[in-house]
Amino acid sequence: MVLNSPDSLQASAETQFALTHSKLTAGLAADKLQHELLELEMQNEELRATHLALKEALDNYASLYEYAPISYLTLTTEGRIAEINLTGVALLGEAREKLLNRRFSSLLSSKDADRWHLLFTSLIRREKKEMSFELVLQTDQQRVLQMQANCVFLMAHNAAPTVRMVLIDITEANDRKQKERDLRISATAFDAHSSMIVTDAAGDILRVNQAFLDLTGYTKSEVVGKNLRILKSGRHDKVFYGAIWESILRIGSWKGEIWDRRKNGEHFLCWLSIAAVKASDGGITHYVATHIDITERKAAEAQIFNLAFYDSLTQLPNRRLLHDCLISSIEMAQRTGRQLALLMLGLDCFKSVNDSLGHSAGDELLQQVAARMTALLRDGDMVARLGGDEFVVLLENLTGPHDAGRVADDIIAELSRPFKLSQNDDVRIGVSIGISLLAQHGDTPQALMHNADAALHQAKEQGRGCASYFSEEFTAAVQARIALGSRLQRAIEQQELQVFYQPQVNIASGQIIGAEALVRWHDPVHGLILPTSFIPVAEETSLIVAIGAWVLRDVCRQGRLWLDKGLPSLTLAVNVSPQQFRRCDVNVLVAEVLAETGFPVGQLKLEITESGLMEYQDNITEILQNLYDQGVRLAIDDFGIGYSSLARLKSFPVDVLKIDKSFIDNIPDNKDDMEIASTIVAMGHALGFSVLAEGVETPKQLAFLTEIDCDSYQGYIKSCPLSAEEFAEFYLSHI
Ligand code: C2E
Ligand code: MG
Ligand code: MG
Q1: Distances (CA, A) of 174 to 54, 169, 178, 181
Q2: Does 532 sit in the ligand 1 pocket, CB within 6 Å?
Q3: Is the peptide bond before 568 cis (omega within 30 degrees of 0)?
Q4: Ligand 1 site, residue 715, Cβ cutoff 6 A
Q5: Which atom from ligand 1 is nearest to the alpha carbon of 660?
Q6: 20 to 30 A from 264, CA-CA: which of 158, 201, 566, 596?
Q7: Where are the alpha helices (DSSP H) in 643-698?
Q8: What's the DSSP call for residue 196?
Q9: How many C-beta atoms surround the C-beta of residue 592 within 10 A?
């Protein structure tokens, strides 16, 4: 819109009046002239009034334009400011002269300048009639203003096209929007899952959220206005609360675990975060506290701890916890110079309880063992279960090394009392204990455990039911035995074993009636090794099964060969270890070997030691009966030292009792032994057994045996064990 100014209107009216006046003076009558002059004056008066009204309107318009509460700008098509109202000038904070002709984009942030350029161009190109967008103005006073700009493209008849722009300051509106958003966020946060309280500076509650009410059981009206103290459980002392307030005053916050109280009086453990809200002058105006109930989490943690560090059957500490405690106990003992001992326990006969009464009885027994041990030991001592029937006792603050032995003796006495289980109220077990002492036997948990374990082996070796301190020599012997075990494994594969035969002689006739098969080991490095050195090692592992089977097969094969070569028939006795009965089916083995070799069953005798027979309680009678029914003959070896009951002996289908060599050795010097030997012979005969004496070396011994009516013997007096070839020769020469 282009406006004509009021001054130019006035000038054109005056020119018109002067022209008219001169024409009248030249040609018209004076009265007419007078009349017209009057009319013209009137018209002039009207014009003046119009002019004044117009000027007033223009002034009004100008002040409306200049002082409108929004900024108006007119831009050239190059984007320069052609016109700006006073509001706009005030908004941009610059003098009008500085703003006129300046590119509008120079007032924009660089991001907005690019956007502006695109939009402005599309407006100029008349791709858009008008446009409206938000932009950020950066004034020369470094103020940042968020504006809404509305632009219209204007075409004029006789002037260059322009762009009219209206700028509206929306900074405040945006701030308000942001504040509203913040408020909404904090309101949502306040009503979130964790319990929240806002108090004033005195700790009086102003606001709580639903989670707080749920947690404590209070209603809003019951707590608002009350002091935070209503949550006190009474579990913490003044010092504890003092520390909390001290932290809040010093660093403005406190976080930690605290026991609080619900409305119903119940205590709960929570994680409390409390923060002070400060005014601009630094004074505390409010406190905001959040609570998280961690009672359940703590319980879960405790359960996890329990599972990780305690044995679930006995509730005793497990190997891991023992190890951790051992580390700190060693440190403590080293600092204080006190004695520390580790006792490794192995229950004797636990396996037979488990096997015969079942696993639940075994579990019950272990629980009772744990309970007895816990009751027996002092508070500071620790008993842990490593698994199976292995328990460990950690003794601290001992006055001397002998204390450990005394405690071990007490444990042995305590555990040898019968146990009452639900299935059987008279279960007896024993315990062997190995002891290692800090410093003397090691100063790391590993060394102490290892050496206590070695000492336990030693204790078992010494005859079970006893305690033994660790000893280097013993460990060396154990190591040698372990080495022997691995060599023995190879010996079987490499066929280093050989069976020797010792003749058995009928005393009355002097005839060789059979032979005992005795295994030998020809070790390529260590030479000949006797069975007393390697059979016990083999018995500790399953090697005895392989060795036993090999000997039986070799003996039956040899026996068949002798028969085939025409040697008169003999009874061949093969030693069978009680471990073989435990670990394999001897009946099946015997049947297989006899079928394989064709050796007559009636000529095979199996020897089982008296102690082995007594130790193997389970179903030995049945097994022996089966063997007997197959036609195999049975002998009780080393008889007299195993304290077997006569009643029990009668129940076995046995043919021969072999008097142990130890009763023969001291004949004729030891009257007791002679007495025992003659009793065994008499008793054996009374029970229907044939009696054989082992280890007969002298004619006097033989004479005595003849006198007491012993049936047969074997011993060096006749022959030591011989190789198969030697034996065949020997036999043939003695027929
Ligand atoms: P055993 O069955 O009591 O065998 C008798 C042992 O006494 C044999 O020792 C034999 O050589 C020895 N002996 C025989 N007469 C005399 C004598 O007059 N004086 C002396 N000082 N000793 C005599 P060996 O061969 O060393 O066997 C020892 C033990 O090894 C056997 O005792 C037996 O229990 C076991 N054994 C031997 N061979 C086997 C086998 O193949 N299997 C199993 N399981 N054990 C075997
Ligand atoms: Mg024997
Ligand atoms: Mg014997």
Answers
A1: 41, 10, 6, 10
A2: yes
A3: no
A4: yes
A5: 3
A6: 201
A7: 646-650, 661-665, 671-686
A8: E
A9: 14
Question: Residue 45 is which amino acid?
Answer: E
d(CA 658, CA 652): 15
Q: State the ligand closest to the CA atom of 548.
A: 1
The three-class DSSP label of residue 632 is coil
Best residue for ligand 1 mutational test, from 575, 589, 667, 714 (most atoms within 8 Å of Cβ): 575
632 contacts: CB under 8 Å, gap ≥ 6: 590, 601, 604, 605, 606
Question: Which residues are in the CB-under-5-Å shell of ion ligand 2?
Answer: 575, 607, 637
Cα–Cα distance measured from residue 61 to residue 70, given in angstroms and rounded to the nearest whole number: 15
Q: Is 636 in the pocket of ligand 1 (CB under 6 A)?
A: no
Of residues 639, 634, 671, 638, the one with CA closest to residue 656: 634
Strand partners, 502: 516
Cβ of residue 721 lying under 6 Å from some atom of ligand 1 = yes
Indicate whether this model's pTM tops 0.70: no
Q: What does the H/E/C string look like for 210-245?
A: HHHHHHHCCCHHHHCCCEHHHHECCCCCHHHHHHHH
Q: Where are the alpha helices (DSSP H) in 631-723?
A: 646-650, 661-665, 671-686, 699-707
In whole angstroms, how large is the CA radius of gyration of the chain?
A: 58
pLDDT for position 3: 42
* Residue 137 tokens, joined: 């103005």
Between CA 496 and CA 502, with CA 498 as vertex, the angle to 5 degrees is 160
Mean pLDDT of all residues in 56-62: 82
CB within 8 Å of 361: residues ≥ 6 apart:
353, 354, 421, 422, 423, 424, 427
Q: Are 412 and 462 in contact (CB under 8 A)?
A: no
Q: How far apart are CA 602 and CA 368, in angstroms?
A: 50
Q: What is the pLDDT of residue 374?
A: 94
Amino acid at 667: I
Tell me which residue has tokens 């660790």: 470
Backbone torsions φ then ψ of 141, nearest 5 degrees: -85, 15
pLDDT at 28: 57
Beta bridge partners of 605: 573, 633
- Which SS3 state, helix, strand or coil, does residue 84 take? strand
User: Where are the alpha helices (H) located in 337-399, listed in sequence order?
Assistant: 350-357, 359-376
Domain annotation for the chain: domains and CATH numbers = 67-175 (3.30.450.20), 192-298 (3.30.450.20), 312-470 (3.30.70.270), 488-733 (3.20.20.450)
CA–CA separation, 13 and 48 (whole Å): 9
CA of 575 from ligand 2 middle (Å) equals 5
Alpha carbons 419 and 277: distance in angstroms, whole number: 67
* Ramachandran angles phi, psi of 515, nearest 5°: -150, 150
Q: What does pLDDT average to over the chain?
A: 88
398-412 pLDDT, tens digit each: 888 888 999 999 999
Provide the terminal-to-terminal Cα distance of the chain, rounded to the nearest Å.
155
Q: Give the tens place of pLDDT for each residue, 250-271.
A: 998 999 999 999 999 999 999 9
